[in-house]
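Weekly modeling sync, notes
Attendees: AB, CL, MP (scribe)

Item 1: holo prediction request
CL wants a bound-state model with protoporphyrin IX containing FE before deciding which constructs to order. AB pointed out that an apo prediction alone won't tell us much about the pocket. Agreed to run with the ligand included and paste results into these notes for async review.

Input as submitted:
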Amino acid sequence: MDDSWPIIGRTLEARRDLLGMLQRQERRFGPVYQQRVPSMRLVTALSADANELVLRNKDDVLSSRLGWTRFIDHVFPGAIMGMDGDQHRRQRRIMQAAFRTAALKDYVARMSPLLVARVATWRGRQRSAYALLKRLTLDVATDVFVRPGQAARAGHGPLNRAFVDAVEASIAILRYDVWPLPYARGVRGAAYLQRHFRALLPDKRREPGDDLFSQLALARDEDGEAFTDEEVVHHLAFLMMAAHDTSTSTLTTLVYLLGKHPEHQARLRAEALALGDAPPEFAALEGMTTLERAISEALRLYPPLPLMPRVVVKPFALHGYRFDPGTLVAVSPLFTHYDERLWLNPYRFDPDRFAPARAEHQRHRYQWVPFGGGPHRCIGSRFAMLEIKAILHQLLRRFRWSLPARYEMPYQLMPIAKPRDGLPIEFTAV
Ligand code: HEM
């Protein structure tokens, strides 16, 4: 039992050095440790077995709704991550229609011209790789999910600000709707998102296109059930956030890692150049296995979501301890991604650990969980891989970049991982 009060003690420590803190706690207390929080018990579970038990959630013993809604309900109400059991299964089935292979092929075809044109403008010294990538992934999400062909004119200042504020508010410690507290800014950002998408919905219902927004408006499960207007708007706001923030985080990490490891960058560039000038289509992107390993390794070292919360709703046992309903349980991809019992030299950037000959990630099905697992496993993981590959492919073909050996990217892990300095970089033409 760790006796600190996480709200004032470990919360601040966790924001500064989450991995170090989890490793120290695990050495002291073992794979499960408990802390005091007002009105509940907080248990952190640090093992691949715990990831499996908690995320698979056999017999619905844990609630994602109770785990997530405390963080996101005020800014992303009605998000699918905040649903459980039958409601979650039903909504997920309908949403799945927007992620089937035919739809993904179409999204890839649609995003290519935008990526090619945008990346071409990135030559030279850039103050923030993160800002460039965030703007691009938000434009891709707008173009592919909301308004085809509109990304360039969408006036993204307010939309981007609204997403940033809403995400920051998810971990606000002071939860008062008092301007200019981050919480209050987040609540206003969330209201802006709802208004923005709701205003577009009647057109989507009247004249659906093949964008994800229309797919959500049209989608029906096998019993013919569709989403209500409110559900469509809530799902879209959450999907847009989930889609561009996590992909931006991963792309920034890759720019950093490949800048620190020129040998990997050169190898990936040679493969990208060998594929010819035309932007790769769906099948070519799916076939980029070397690039996929680099992405998997970046997701291992810097999982955009370092912790996932659930709340016990039926008595639940883990590593020999029993937990009562009401206990908040957190599992950590970050911890298992650096566990020396599972990975060789876990601090090293070594994409080939994912190659079939080594397959280090297959020692335990739940040791590598950047996309989570079980019923709430990321619905957009395949889209994310396609988008990240398509953007990196363009970057690698056009530019070289490097970072000083001494430079270590200063990193903020929560609520979504990103560099504190934006990652300044210079892109030089190949
Ligand atoms: C590298 C990119 C991404 C990462 C690392 C990531 C990570 C995750 C994780 C860890 C979860 C599970 C959370 C939990 O179980 O508590 C999740 C769920 C989810 N993700 Fe992603 N995600 C990514 C990209 C995307 C994209 C591109 C989309 C949409 C296009 C998306 C949509 C969602 C949705 C809707 C859920 C909730 C699913 C459910 O509750 O059934 N994600 N994501």
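Recorded for review: Residues 64, 80-81, 92, 239, 242-243, 246-247, 250, 304-305, 308, 370-372, 376, 378-380, 383-384 surround protoporphyrin IX containing FE (CB under 6 Å).
Action items: CL to compare against the apo run; MP to circulate these notes.
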